[in-house]
Amino acid sequence: MATVLYVTANPKPESESVCLRMGREFLRTYELTNPLDEIVELDLYRDPIPLLDFDVFSGWSKLNEGSPLTLEERKKLGRISELVEQFIHADKYIFVTPMWNFGLPPMFKAYIDLVCMQGKTYQYTAAGPVGMLLNKKAVHIQARGQIYSQGPAQAMEYADSYVRLVLGLMGITDVQSIIAEGTSDPQRFSQILQQGIQLAKQQAVQFAQS
């Protein structure tokens, strides 16, 4: 039995979000294909995700010095520890995001800043950084208003490429991408949505069986 971490980063209701609808259909198909796996859902816009702020850096410094922490520092560092351990112990990851301003929602970046932690998910060696999370799989499900997979806008795609880059840093190199593009076109919206959902279902079967 594997543990699957399902991470969403969109404040909209599922009914109003292409990526969340694709993600939910992916997850439903996955559960039907592999019902014994444990699914852990993390909503980055509803669950507490600390920012790397003054309290966090101050708390880390105090831990190194052996000094007492404030209540707020203990609370934030405790939550960060929970999130990092949850991330480390997952076997598979499903990330669901929209593309915003050529990149990712801020809460997703905040989450990555927490779990991409030296000494926990990657480490520096004489040869450079080495990932510590090996033999794991991930899928990134994303919706985009325009076309970024080809053409002149391809150079402005900093979303899926960033996910692959940072996962690779942590040792997660088996990454699939399920992308729905051009959703801002009202004449093609329904077609793009249905194609995205069907692709998500197809990929979910393979992801469950691997």
From TrEMBL:
Reaction catalysed by this enzyme: N,N-dimethyl-1,4-phenylenediamine + anthranilate + 2 NAD(+) = 2-(4-dimethylaminophenyl)diazenylbenzoate + 2 NADH + 2 H(+); 2 a quinone + NADH + H(+) = 2 a 1,4-benzosemiquinone + NAD(+)
Cofactor binding note from Swiss-Prot or TrEMBL: Binds 1 FMN per subunit.
Annotated positions binding FMN: M99, W100, N101, F102
One Pfam family linked to the record: Flavodoxin_2
Documented EC number(s): 1.6.5.-, 1.7.1.17
InterPro entries: Flavodoxin_fold, Flavoprotein-like_sf, FMN-dep_NADH:Q_OxRdtase_AzoR1, NADH:quinone_OxRdtase_FMN_depd
Domain Flavodoxin-like fold span(s) in chain numbering: 3-201
Alphabetical keyword list: Flavoprotein, FMN, NAD, Oxidoreductase
Parts forming coiled coils: none
SUPFAM superfamilies, per the entry: Flavoproteins
Domain of life: Bacteria
GO molecular function (one): electron transfer activity
Cofactor(s) the protein requires to work: FMN
Subunit structure: Homodimer.
Function: Also exhibits azoreductase activity. Catalyzes the reductive cleavage of the azo bond in aromatic azo compounds to the corresponding amines.
HAMAP family assigned to the protein according to its UniProt record, in alphabetical order: Azoreductase_type1
Family listed: Belongs to the azoreductase type 1 family.
UniProt protein name: FMN dependent NADH:quinone oxidoreductase
